[in-house]
UniProtKB/TrEMBL annotation:
It comes from the Archaea. It comes from Thermococcus chitonophagus. InterPro entries: SpoVT-AbrB_dom, SpoVT-AbrB_sf, TRAM_dom. It holds the Pfam family MazE_antitoxin. NCBIfam families: lp_hng_hel_AbrB. Gene3D superfamilies: 2.10.260.10. This is TRAM domain-containing protein. GO terms for molecular function: DNA binding. Residues 66-137 form the TRAM domain.
Amino acid sequence: MHKSANMVNRIKNIIGSKTSKHISIIRKLKEAQRMQETPEPLAKYPTKVMVQGRITLLTPIREYYNIELGDFIEVIIRKKDNEKVHRGHFLARVYDKGYMTIPKGLRDEIGIKPGDFVEVLIVDIIKPEELLGDKAKFLRNILRGKYEIITRDQEIRILSRA
Protein backbone atom coordinates (compact mmCIF):
# COMPACT_ATOMS: atom_id res chain seq x y z
CA MET A 1 0.00 0.00 0.00
CA HIS A 2 2.82 2.32 0.86
CA LYS A 3 4.43 1.74 -2.56
CA SER A 4 1.22 2.51 -4.44
CA ALA A 5 0.71 5.75 -2.48
CA ASN A 6 4.28 6.76 -3.39
CA MET A 7 3.58 5.97 -7.01
CA VAL A 8 0.42 8.08 -7.00
CA ASN A 9 2.32 11.01 -5.47
CA ARG A 10 5.07 10.67 -8.09
CA ILE A 11 2.51 10.63 -10.89
CA LYS A 12 0.80 13.71 -9.39
CA ASN A 13 4.17 15.48 -9.17
CA ILE A 14 5.07 14.61 -12.76
CA ILE A 15 1.66 15.62 -14.11
CA GLY A 16 1.67 18.75 -11.97
CA SER A 17 5.11 19.89 -13.11
CA LYS A 18 4.30 19.21 -16.76
CA THR A 19 1.00 21.04 -16.41
CA SER A 20 2.69 24.09 -14.91
CA LYS A 21 5.29 23.99 -17.71
CA HIS A 22 2.49 23.79 -20.28
CA ILE A 23 0.69 26.70 -18.66
CA SER A 24 3.93 28.71 -18.71
CA ILE A 25 4.45 27.92 -22.40
CA ILE A 26 0.83 28.81 -23.22
CA ARG A 27 1.21 32.14 -21.38
CA LYS A 28 4.38 32.93 -23.33
CA LEU A 29 2.69 32.05 -26.63
CA LYS A 30 -0.31 34.24 -25.80
CA GLU A 31 2.02 37.15 -24.92
CA ALA A 32 3.91 36.72 -28.20
CA GLN A 33 0.62 36.60 -30.11
CA ARG A 34 -0.61 39.77 -28.39
CA MET A 35 2.63 41.55 -29.31
CA GLN A 36 2.21 40.49 -32.95
CA GLU A 37 -1.31 41.94 -32.97
CA THR A 38 -0.02 45.35 -31.88
CA PRO A 39 -0.03 47.56 -34.97
CA GLU A 40 3.25 49.15 -35.94
CA PRO A 41 3.71 52.72 -37.21
CA LEU A 42 5.37 53.44 -40.56
CA ALA A 43 8.29 54.92 -38.58
CA LYS A 44 9.16 55.68 -34.96
CA TYR A 45 12.01 57.82 -33.67
CA PRO A 46 12.97 60.14 -30.80
CA THR A 47 13.56 63.82 -31.45
CA LYS A 48 14.15 67.05 -29.58
CA VAL A 49 11.44 69.73 -29.57
CA MET A 50 12.58 73.11 -30.87
CA VAL A 51 11.18 76.62 -30.47
CA GLN A 52 7.42 76.92 -31.14
CA GLY A 53 6.98 73.17 -30.98
CA ARG A 54 8.89 72.35 -34.14
CA ILE A 55 10.13 68.81 -34.63
CA THR A 56 12.08 67.40 -37.55
CA LEU A 57 10.98 64.58 -39.80
CA LEU A 58 14.25 62.71 -40.30
CA THR A 59 15.79 62.86 -43.81
CA PRO A 60 16.03 59.06 -44.31
CA ILE A 61 12.31 58.75 -43.49
CA ARG A 62 11.44 61.61 -45.89
CA GLU A 63 13.51 59.99 -48.64
CA TYR A 64 12.21 56.46 -48.03
CA TYR A 65 8.54 57.52 -48.14
CA ASN A 66 9.09 60.30 -50.72
CA ILE A 67 7.67 62.91 -48.34
CA GLU A 68 7.83 66.43 -49.77
CA LEU A 69 7.10 69.98 -48.74
CA GLY A 70 3.35 70.37 -48.31
CA ASP A 71 2.57 66.72 -47.59
CA PHE A 72 0.59 65.94 -44.45
CA ILE A 73 1.68 63.42 -41.84
CA GLU A 74 -0.59 61.74 -39.31
CA VAL A 75 1.44 61.67 -36.10
CA ILE A 76 1.23 60.16 -32.65
CA ILE A 77 3.58 61.81 -30.19
CA ARG A 78 4.67 60.42 -26.82
CA LYS A 79 6.23 62.32 -23.95
CA LYS A 80 7.48 60.46 -20.91
CA ASP A 81 7.28 62.07 -17.46
CA ASN A 82 8.71 59.89 -14.69
CA GLU A 83 6.48 56.79 -14.88
CA LYS A 84 3.68 58.31 -17.00
CA VAL A 85 3.50 58.46 -20.79
CA HIS A 86 1.48 61.32 -22.33
CA ARG A 87 0.19 60.78 -25.86
CA GLY A 88 -1.19 63.07 -28.53
CA HIS A 89 -2.48 62.58 -32.08
CA PHE A 90 -2.50 65.22 -34.82
CA LEU A 91 -2.10 65.96 -38.50
CA ALA A 92 1.02 67.97 -39.38
CA ARG A 93 2.03 69.68 -42.58
CA VAL A 94 5.63 69.16 -43.67
CA TYR A 95 7.59 72.39 -44.11
CA ASP A 96 11.08 73.16 -45.44
CA LYS A 97 13.79 70.77 -44.22
CA GLY A 98 11.17 68.37 -42.90
CA TYR A 99 9.96 70.56 -40.05
CA MET A 100 6.56 69.84 -38.53
CA THR A 101 4.84 71.66 -35.67
CA ILE A 102 3.19 70.09 -32.64
CA PRO A 103 -0.09 72.02 -32.11
CA LYS A 104 0.16 74.58 -29.30
CA GLY A 105 -2.89 73.23 -27.47
CA LEU A 106 -1.36 69.74 -27.40
CA ARG A 107 2.02 71.11 -26.23
CA ASP A 108 0.30 73.03 -23.41
CA GLU A 109 -1.93 70.13 -22.40
CA ILE A 110 0.83 67.52 -22.03
CA GLY A 111 3.60 69.93 -21.04
CA ILE A 112 5.91 69.82 -24.04
CA LYS A 113 8.55 72.56 -23.99
CA PRO A 114 11.54 73.41 -26.22
CA GLY A 115 14.40 71.09 -25.34
CA ASP A 116 12.14 68.17 -24.35
CA PHE A 117 12.60 64.84 -26.05
CA VAL A 118 9.54 63.19 -27.56
CA GLU A 119 8.92 60.00 -29.46
CA VAL A 120 7.35 60.48 -32.90
CA LEU A 121 5.25 57.75 -34.52
CA ILE A 122 4.38 58.25 -38.19
CA VAL A 123 0.95 56.70 -38.75
CA ASP A 124 0.09 57.81 -42.29
CA ILE A 125 1.27 60.04 -45.12
CA ILE A 126 -1.24 62.12 -47.03
CA LYS A 127 -0.12 63.51 -50.37
CA PRO A 128 -2.34 66.40 -51.51
CA GLU A 129 -1.93 65.53 -55.22
CA GLU A 130 -3.55 62.17 -54.55
CA LEU A 131 -6.58 64.01 -53.19
CA LEU A 132 -6.63 67.15 -55.35
CA GLY A 133 -4.80 66.28 -58.57
CA ASP A 134 -3.46 69.30 -60.53
CA LYS A 135 -4.61 71.82 -57.91
CA ALA A 136 -2.29 70.16 -55.40
CA LYS A 137 0.68 70.66 -57.74
CA PHE A 138 -0.22 74.34 -57.95
CA LEU A 139 -0.45 74.58 -54.13
CA ARG A 140 2.87 72.76 -53.75
CA ASN A 141 4.53 75.28 -56.07
CA ILE A 142 3.05 78.18 -54.09
CA LEU A 143 4.46 76.68 -50.89
CA ARG A 144 7.88 76.50 -52.54
CA GLY A 145 7.61 80.13 -53.62
CA LYS A 146 7.60 79.19 -57.29
CA TYR A 147 5.82 81.21 -59.91
CA GLU A 148 5.58 81.36 -63.65
CA ILE A 149 5.18 84.01 -66.32
CA ILE A 150 2.15 83.14 -68.43
CA THR A 151 0.74 84.09 -71.81
CA ARG A 152 -2.77 85.35 -72.47
CA ASP A 153 -3.80 81.89 -73.70
CA GLN A 154 -2.50 80.29 -70.49
CA GLU A 155 -4.41 82.92 -68.51
CA ILE A 156 -7.63 82.01 -70.31
CA ARG A 157 -7.01 78.29 -69.70
CA ILE A 158 -6.38 78.90 -66.01
CA LEU A 159 -9.46 81.09 -65.68
CA SER A 160 -11.65 78.54 -67.45
CA ARG A 161 -10.57 75.82 -64.97
CA ALA A 162 -11.65 77.88 -61.97
